[in-house]
Design a protein that fits this description.
Butyryl-Coa Dehydrogenase, subunit A, domain 1; alpha+beta; Butyryl-CoA Dehydrogenase, subunit A, domain 2; four-stranded antiparallel sheet; 402 residues; binds flavin-adenine dinucleotide; Butyryl-CoA Dehydrogenase, subunit A, domain 3
């Protein structure tokens, strides 16, 4: 049976989130956040009050017990409201990585971080990328050494979203490093790294080109003692937990990109219906209509793929009807296509606006700058998605043995 409709509950949820965002996060406010380089506290509190923060966590752990389709709706609406994607980033790292941390953590970590993060009173993020590179996870240098009652950690993470917010609000990061380098990716172990742990030094805030309201920084870990209670999952499973987190995050990234693209399309359509040239609205020119048709067709195709993939994630987690590997190909397709589609829509609609589109009076440039972060690599570079898609399409065994 195929049913492409959202449930009544999901439609109501979308409406209520959109209504709240329209009131509390109009585009002028997004511009202000972009200029002030800060997400206002009242927005974070509001997202917490709406049960959007860490909404994927079970209710008994402080979340809303939301499924992935509903969470993708929230990500889309946040991308629609904040096309700079700063607030979507704040939301989605916690909904995805918070979920994976919750799946594998002890109650100690839930109590010191996750329950508070769900209320907007702390932050949970992802610390994977290292100065030597982000794509080659198995080539990381962060090392774990076993101690009597925990682990000693040394290493450095960089280009990490939300380091300043985390420092300010409290909380920490999902981090993975080698507990046994000789085992390759099977020798990685994941843990929760509190940002304020002794030996953790938050490094500089990068001057990014976009998504200015959320910080991107890094942290060094020098002889940091992590108690056993902070370990996530079994020893040697860190690589797999990292991939699980990426899977969840990439669906939500894609969804927020489709939200930003939707907003750009709507702004553009409104404009071409009004703006006149050669005695008629721009929308009457076939050259403009063909542009719109191409974007609208691509938009619907990618949006369907994203919700189908979120649905697969729900099936995987709730019913076990899809494996992680079956989901990964579709997830990578979403992450490959959605950011580039959003960038393309932002660029092409910006052209419709003429000179106005190039100015900061027009919101589109914030979108262009922000979405570029996802084209470049946040939550995984495009070529890495292509590697996953081609490997799963050609067949794993074939790829491995030839
Ligand atoms: C704004 C922003 C926020 C970020 N936030 C976070 C965060 O919160 N946490 C976190 O851990 N990381 C974060 N990142 C880092 C992000 O995950 C990395 O940028 C990404 O994984 C790519 O790593 P890299 O930048 O080191 O590029 P590299 O891995 O050095 O890759 C450089 C280029 O080479 C290509 N490439 C690499 N390997 C191959 C291959 N085998 N075949 C073909 N091409 C290849 C890549 O596609 C890329 O184009 C963020 C990045 C940005 C820009």
């Amino acid at each position: 049976m195929i049913d492409f409709s959202f449930t009544d509950e999901q439609n109501l949820f979308r409406e209520s989130v959109r209504e709240w965002l329209a009131k509390n996060l109009p585009i002028e406010k997004v511009r202000e956040n972009d200029e002030k380089h800060k997400i206002p506290k009242d927005i974070i509190k509001g997202l917490g009050d709406l049960d959007l923060l860490c909404m994927t966590l079970p209710e008994e752990h402080g979340g809303a017990g939301a499924d992935w389709v509903t969470t993708a709706i929230a990500a889309e609406e946040l991308g629609y409201a904040d096309i700079s994607v700063a607030i979507p980033v704040f939301f989605l790292v916690q909904a995805s990585w918070g979920y994976v941390v919750d799946e594998y953590c002890t109650d100690v970590v839930r109590d010191i971080c996750l329950r508070k993060a769900a209320k907007g009173e702390s932050f949970i993020g992802i610390g994977v990328t290292e100065p030597g590179g982000g794509s080659d996870v198995a080539g990381f240098k962060t090392m774990l050494k076993k101690e009597k009652d925990g682990w000693l950690i040394n290493g450095e993470k960089t280009y990490i979203s939300g380091t300043e917010e985390c420092k300010e609000m409290g909380g920490g990061y999902f981090v993975s490093g080698f507990s046994d380098k000789s085992q390759g990716h099977r020798g990685m172990t994941a843990f929760y790294m509190p940002i304020n742990a002794p030996g953790v030094e938050v490094t500089k805030r990068f001057e990014n080109m976009g998504r200015m309201a959320i910080s991107t920084g890094g942290f060094k870990m020098t002889n940091v003692h992590i108690p056993d209670e902070y370990q996530l999952g079994e020893t040697g499973r860190g690589f797999y937990l990292t991939m699980e987190g990426f899977d969840a995050a990439r669906v939500l990234v894609s969804s927020s990109c489709i939200g930003a693209a939707q907003r750009a399309l709507e702004l553009g359509i409104e404009y071409i219906k009004e703006r006149r040239a050669f005695e008629q609205p721009l929308a009457k020119f076939q050259g403009i209509q063909f542009d719109l048709a191409e974007m609208a067709a691509e938009h619907e195709a990618i949006k369907s793929l994203i919700y189908r993939t979120a649905w697969m994630l729900d099936k995987k987690y709730k019913e076990g009807t899809f494996t992680a590997l079956e989901c990964s190909k579709y997830i990578s397709m979403c992450k490959l296509l959605a950011p580039h589609h959003a960038l393309d829509v932002l660029k092409r609609t910006m052209l419709w606006f003429g000179a106005y589109g190039y100015s900061k009076e027009c919101p589109l440039e914030m979108g262009l700058r922000g979405i570029m972060s996802y084209c470049i690599g946040a939550e995984g570079a495009s070529n890495i998605q292509k590697i996953v898609i081609s490997r799963e399409t050609l067949g794993r065994d074939w790829t491995r043995t030839r």
